[in-house]
């Protein structure tokens, strides 16, 4: 006999929405178990007692599942400074305070970096027009008295200036060199004429990012084994991601990036220069498994992340369809070591497969094994994830049919 609650998922059996907090889940569990606890049916019929026992077991099972399956938080690299936005905001502050010269200098610096940034060009044109000197003509004739007055006034000003200069020279003679340097440093204002030229200004997409480390130096793995001749196969499916309304993968966003499930797919977006953005989970069968996912990429790199020891220590297997390349590299803080890379024919959507056994990693793209590696520098870890690496271009990756299988 089928019970009326057999088709309910863990959230529905407890009466909570996906994304509920641990406190809300616990409160809902206590409420449900108090309703169907077998002790409350001591005087009921045998069928009612059996039903309450089965439902109480299902409630306990759901509570334990949700405690274990709470989505792991998204680990994102520190967001780099948006230098262009900072310059634009600084120029707006100068304009609001009436400092038009400073605003013009700041906008010119921004224009050297990105000539098309917002209304930068229009603001510069307006400021240059306002600050352009205009010829002033006058038909006023000065009388002899006015000329003499101006002449005597000029002599007086010159004498006062000379006297003031002498006083300053005597005062400067008594000041220490250190105090002078500090005063000059405190009052120094960069001149717009010494701003970096367009050829020396840093590219906005090459700005330093905590995760956009310098281009990795290719170092061949000393233990790389020859590629096998047969494709990667897996055993029983132990997990298949649900990227629908009840997805256990996180949905969140930050400054220039977002992750989330929609319509059976998981989408990660990142602006240019942000580096690695990912979401991860923990395998229910440990670190030995076969991971498989379909991915389509627009922009730079995207793929799988595994052996996630920490936010600064993990391995990634990525593809770049625009360049027809794949890469497997190991991150160690801000350094990356390339373990395998090459060129390959890629379609609009591609299937990536990774088999993890002990310290051996087998990599496959669209049923073609591209490399097999033996890694001793990093400990196997059951945590894995989906990753986008936006280096020079905005990047969007769409993932689907993510499965975990046992090793055959």
TrEMBL record:
Keywords: Membrane, Stress response, Transmembrane, Transmembrane helix. Residues 202-216 have a biased composition (Low complexity). InterPro entries: DjlA_DnaK_co-chaperone (IPR050817), DnaJ_domain (IPR001623), J_dom_sf (IPR036869). The chain crosses the membrane at residues 147-165. Residues 186-231 are annotated as: Disordered. It comes from the Bacteria. This is Heat shock protein DnaJ domain protein. Residues 9-71 form the J domain. It comes from Chloroflexus aurantiacus (strain ATCC 29366 / DSM 635 / J-10-fl).
